[in-house]
Each structure stands twice: as structure tokens, then as C-alpha cells.
Amino acid sequence: MIIGVLALQGAFIEHEKSFQACGAETRQIRLPEQLEGIDALVIPGGESTTMGKLLIDFGLLNPIKEMAQNGLPIFGTCAGLVMLAKDIVKSEQTTLSLMDILVERNAFGRQVDSFEADLEIPAIGNPSYRGVFIRAPYIVSAGPGVEVMAKFEDKIVMARQNNLLCTAFHPELTDDLRVHQYFLEMLKTQKNN
Ligand code: GLN
After folding, report:
1. Please, what are the domains in the chain?
2. For a pocket test of ligand 1, which of 48, 93, 133 has the largest count of ligand atoms closer than 8 A to its C-beta?
3. How do residues 33-56 score in pLDDT, each as one tens digit?
4. Model pTM score
5. Could you give the residue ranges of the DSSP H alpha helices within the chain?
6. 53: CA distance to ligand 1 center in Å?
7. In angstroms, what CA-CA distances link 173 with 41, 139, 186?
8. Residue from 16, 78, 166, 180 carrying the catalytic annotation
């Protein structure tokens, strides 16, 4: 099983380390031909407007979109969540436009650029999960096909729509591997379908 990790910019090395710690093989993705043979793709945190531009410049936007529509599991964190969204509040930036979610960027305000919070994520069980938020977006609203997996206060910070998983926080910046393991389980069960 090969987990592709989009490596145009942002926190991709940390995701590689987390998946490797789960026993999975990873591959850095910068070119369309590197997408061949991957079983899943991770879109890391970073800067989503830059990432959107680079996806176009490197010829990756349409191939990834097509693979996702054909069932490729994708896991987006933070800027990666923004990249998966169909709608961004007050922005026309380029995204893959795959998940029925409306996202607000940098949504927790300037005073709280970064913070940590204990999250209840029923799908991964107890104990609670330490979420690391860095200039994080959140999901303002989600369509009926979207499963809300975690909230921080009243804000949606983790969601899934079929083969697509996203978190507003950074699971790759903690030692707790349960979110990465959940994604690996998700693609195993999908493969059996
Ligand atoms: N605020 C960034 C964006 O919207 C995301 C920040 C992050 O990925 N840590 O692009």
C-alpha cells in the first residue's frame, strides 16, 4: 500500500513520518506521473492559495480530481481541508472542489493564531484527541452526504464524505497516530467493497 503525500509545499514530511510509523509506505508527489500506483493521497497543511496555484502549475489539479472522483481516498489537513472544499467564504481561490463543505479560512481569529484543544472524535474512541490548530480553517456548513466527525465548540473540525477525509487540525504534529490509522482503515474497508 503506497500513500502519496503531496509535496509541493507545507507540512508533508511530518505526514510521511506518521504514516511510516503506522507501517505504511509513502511517496512524495510533485509530478503527475508520480500519482500512478498510489492507493491514497494526503494533502498537507501549508498555504492553500499557494498550493492551489502550484497544483495548476505542476499539472496535478485535474489528475487528482479525476482520481478522487474514481474513488481514490484523500486525506486533507488544514490547508488540505481548504483544497478539498467546494466553497470557501469570500474567496474564489482554486481548490479541487470535491467535498460538499463551506469553509472559512483563518477562522479562529488573529488573537488565537495557534492553539491546542482536546477533541472528542467518536470514530477513534477514547481518550480524547489533542488537536493542534495553526491558523486553522473550519467547516461552516456541510451537505447531507458529509459525516461530521468532530467539532470544537460549535465548529466542525473533522469530516468525511465517502473516500474523502479532512481535519482542520494537524494530526501529523502529534505522536497520537489514531487519525492516520483511521484513514488507513478507511482505505482498507473501501478496497474490500
Ligand atoms: N490558513 C492556511 C490556509 O488557509 C492554512 C494553515 C495551515 O495549513 N496550517 O491556507
Report:
1. 2-192 (3.40.50.880)
2. 48
3. 999 999 999 999 999 999 999 999
4. 0.96
5. 12-21, 48-57, 61-69, 79-84, 178-192
6. 14
7. 18, 21, 21
8. 78
